Predict the structure.
Amino acid sequence: MKSAVITFPGSNCDRDMDVALKKFGFKNKMVWHQDVELPKSDLVVLPGGFSYGDYLRCGSMASKSKIMQSVINFANSGGMVMGICNGFQILVETGLVPGVLLRNKYLEFICKNVFVKIRNKNSDYFKNINNEVLELHIAHNEGNYFCTNDQLKEIEDHNQIAINYCNIDGKIEEKFNPNGSLKNIAGIFNKEKNVLGMMPHPERMIDPSLSGNDGSLFFKNLINNLK
Amino acid sequence: MIVNEKVAIDHGLKKDEYKKICDLLKRTPNITELGIFSAMWNEHCSYKSSRIHLKKLPTKGKQVIQGPGENAGVIDIGDNDAIVFKIESHNHPSFIEPYQGAATGVGGIMRDVFTMGARPIANLNSIHFGSTQHKKTKNLLRGVVHGIGGYGNCMGVPTIAGQTSFDSSYNGNILVNAMTLGLVKKNKIFYSKAAGLNKPVIYVGSKTGRDGIHGASMASASFDDKIEEKKPTVQVGDPFTEKLLLEACLELMAGDSIIAIQDMGAAGLTSSSIEMASKGNLGIEINLNKVPCRESKMTPYEIMLSESQERMLIVLENGKEEQAKKIFDKWNLDFAVIGKTTKSKKIQLYFDNELVANIPVNTLVENSPMYDRKWKKAKLPKKIKIKKEDINNLKIIEVLKKILANPNICSKEWIWQQYDHTVMGDTIQKPGGDSGVVRVHGTNKAVAASVDSSAVYCWAHPLTGGKQIVCESFRNLISVGAKPIAITNCLNFGSPENEENMGEFVECVQGIGEASSYLKFPVVSGNVSFYNQTKDQGIKPTPSIGGVGLIKDYTKMITMDFKEVDNSVLVIGKTEGHIDQSLFARVIINEKNGPPPEINLFNEKNNGETLLKLIENNLIKSAHDISLGGIITAVSKMCIKGNKGINLKKPKYLINEIEYFFSEDQGRYIIEINNSDLKKVVDLLNKNAVHYDELGTINENMLFLNEKTKVTIDELKEFNTKWLKEYMSN
Amino acid sequence: MKISVIITLKKDVLDPQGKVIHQALDGMGFDGVNEVRQGKYFEINTNETNAKKAKDKVEEMCKKLLANLVIENYKIIDTQ
């Protein structure tokens, strides 16, 4: 399986994502933001970091970079596009997934492990995964998901919520919400479920020596689904 | 404008220093030259009060590749890998503007590391604030934490460990010390020594603005009437640009076009160009009109003294300019050829086709002032006789709760959760342990680092305190299974012109030297920060020690959380019951006098090395060094982290329970052992003549000494974690 | 009474955000931009009916909280 990770100026999880994708069998290519064409890929990843320093609005300037037109075309033609953290912020700025990501409720950067409940296993991202709950890691300042009531209704009608913050038993309650996200939303799909944006970093959880190993489950499952 | 003695004094120079400048030049300097002298000869750049003492520190060792004198120290960790590291202070700017001060401190130290070709892989910090009751403390703490996080997080470098303390001596002068570790291939280390004639001198990075230009000089009416607009401005950090600068520099460094490279830190273009010229025994000629400027009408004086951030100076091989420029264009950074190396051994600056400064390099460096300041030796305070009735009525559990909730002991999760500590995917021990640990990417090795200081001990007796911090750093590395290799130090003191403060400096340095020499734990880099004071009152002497160690097989790393019920817990090292200067003495019985605990270097080394052997043989399940708060504080933290309890017993040989559990004798660790290994462990300890006590066995969830003395771990955890969160939330 | 305040960075203070936004605009083909500086805008609605008093109050707010006078200037631009 071939993957491509886009490097924007200020991306800083691009290497980590490259390491993770390769570890689970992807042939990954790094793509520079000023390139025009995407290499032939089965998966395109917008990695975490601080593209353009998070200045103006997180993800806003990266969403206008040259490569993004190809990414948008790729997504619109059904290609798998995944945005993690800052990548999620870029995705909402392009409009590929609905909503916005506001500053965390308590106005502080949060770096810690969280549990998320998988809400929709009908996509190639989570299909066939055995777990209901994954322990992943967040590290962000602007992960507070928000959308209008109309958008929320549409999101729910189309089963677009991918993952919610929860506790170890999968309970989705406000007290397990680290950043104030609407409905504890941690990740969201487009209507067609080929585009996924999420705040947690599966690529930081790919080895038992690290903060956890549930990211491995995610990547193993993902590559199997794409085969 | 005309330069005279008064202008020189406004620049912070002393009368005789100004005279020396005129003598060296055989003329009166112009204002630009005076600015350059004042920057190079100030304490920060010239180390004029400290040099004579710093020379005595041990700086060599089998694994030392580069000691002090470069941008950072470098140590060998095998397989052609090397670690570049340094700690640096940014105290005064952080007090004025905590966010930007702390942020630019972090940015500066990272630049020191990647200037040498190393990719930063971990950040640490040591931050010290005034009393928690002081009105400024909360905002300063919040600003500093946000600043450190804001910069480090954006750079994508994990912040893996740190230290935070509160003491009223920092009320008017907080401390912000930032440390960075970088990873480099041994054969790809870059230095600041210029070489070769007529080589292009290149400026890269951000544009030069009027940031941080020396205050005193700006106040002198040397400029036009728009004084307000030309007031010295705070340096603003731009971590995004620094991230680009990092990637661009590493990309250029992958080739072979760089002869020398130096970041523009304190005193910007002045110190960077002069250092490169001085080390290479060359001259440098710069056309200041070529320097990329952010503001219009900047004068030579301003350009030379600006402390704008995120800039580098490079001496390049001839003919490589185009290729280098391409890289910096790609990253959208300024790139300008501003001068060349010359054989003049002078620093020669041109502006509007005029020679505006012409100074022999050696007058700025070798001939800079060096002082042997007067200092007062500290007496070892007399031991306090604590009245038995003062402590016999105390309930251990109540005391323990107070200690665990003390601002200097309590969990700092509120702080380190705001730092990205997992980016780069190699953090295997996060903040909150004895040391932070990151893997050497793609290998089985890991590097451990910790940062420590013990201002109270140093204040009570500087010589002992100096030794103690080095030992504590040593212990923190050993507790995670790392072999200590070398240290970096950040020496935060009051005024060198005050004999007592100078004495504290001299004796702390002596203590650091003795301990690091004995433990073969040399000093490879560091920084001195004097004049940390409020009015005339200096801070408590606060040397911060950053220690670095190596774990050859990262699967053998040790953490401090208790692992398994029924395992045995031992204390390594002898408990004598030293209460003076302990947290217990200060917080519980309000006794602030007496000597700090004694340091026995033989025991430190022997106990530490023996523990490393035990770890090497896979006999240790968890370990933690005993420091502030004594045995029971250490053991409580192990319980809290592991969600386990312990049945404690006090050995019969000693003193009363309070003294046993709260004393702060040095050279001690707590270890957890599987019972089937107990005999092996005890044999090894006996064989190496290491004293140990059996402290207890691990249980499910209760700290238990006897029916009256017991408490659940959840309750202890509550006391340990809530203070800081509550403090910061109201 | 509604008071509007603009807070800007002082003239010589580096504005990293403005600089990067400028570069992005260049990259998108907006020519001829010389400089971009970013600031903050506040609308403060108070019970105060006296314009002078309201302004003074807001000025105090600026000094004590809204602006960081080490690096920022404030300007009350409108009262209504």
In short: The longest helix of chain C spans residues 51-66. Chain C has one domain: 2-79. The mean pLDDT of chain C is 89.
